[in-house]
Amino acid sequence: MSVENNIKKYREILKPFGAQLIAVSKTKPKEDLLQAYEAGQLAFGENKVQELTEKAEALPKDSEWHMIGHLQRNKVKYIAPFVHLIHAVDSDRLLKEIDKQAEKNERIIPCLLQVFIAKEESKFGFSEEELLDFLKSEDFKNLKNIKVVGLMGMATNTDDMQRVKSEFTGLKALFEQIKAEIQSENLEMKELSMGMTSDYQVACEAGSTMVRIGSAIFGGRNYNQ
Ligand SMILES: *Cc1c(COP(=O)(O)O)cnc(C)c1O
């Protein structure tokens, strides 16, 4: 199937869940992204700062750039002027740097905090406890140029869908808990970014609002990243 058809297909699949499609275009040439754009796809996900910046320059100006990968503090400045949403904020130090760069650019940058849900794998993110403590702290409340709009999580890479389901369901529960219990000017819990090609279905059933799909749309990648 063509990229265009894949975009249409996944839009249809996600519609009943009300989840947004983020087209993960990492490693793919800009021609592929343009095909997706022609099919009406504006939201693109990339995991490397340089690649994201280059593609943002090459694509039409109304496309939206989602940074979905691990972000180093010293690279925040390159995406701060235009990034649409940063999905994988995994430490308070990173969030503070984003706040600083957002202020320089006179904007507020929407962010998702990444939670460590794949218990036996070494993945980035806050633990539940760290996250709750941080969101209740003065340190967090003082950040005026970021807005935390939700959470992001990656499940264990396994065929055991029961396990994936319990990890996603746990993240959804944490999302609801924060929404109910924590108030702050810079916090508005509305997005839950979970699910990729192998597990988007389970993620949608668990309440995902954004799925990050790459290989099912653009085909497999040559190297694993
Ligand atoms: C690559 C990537 C995806 C998409 O993976 P696919 O399996 O190709 O759908 C989603 N989220 C993150 C954080 C990624 O790095």
Automatic annotation (TrEMBL):
Pfam families: Ala_racemase_N (PF01168). The modification N6-(pyridoxal phosphate)lysine is found at K26. Keywords: Pyridoxal phosphate. Residues 3-221 form the Alanine racemase N-terminal domain. The keyword Nucleotide-binding does not apply. Its cofactor is pyridoxal 5'-phosphate. It comes from the Bacteria. This is Pyridoxal phosphate homeostasis protein. It comes from Roseivirga echinicomitans. The lineage of its organism: Bacteria, Pseudomonadati, Bacteroidota, Cytophagia, Cytophagales.
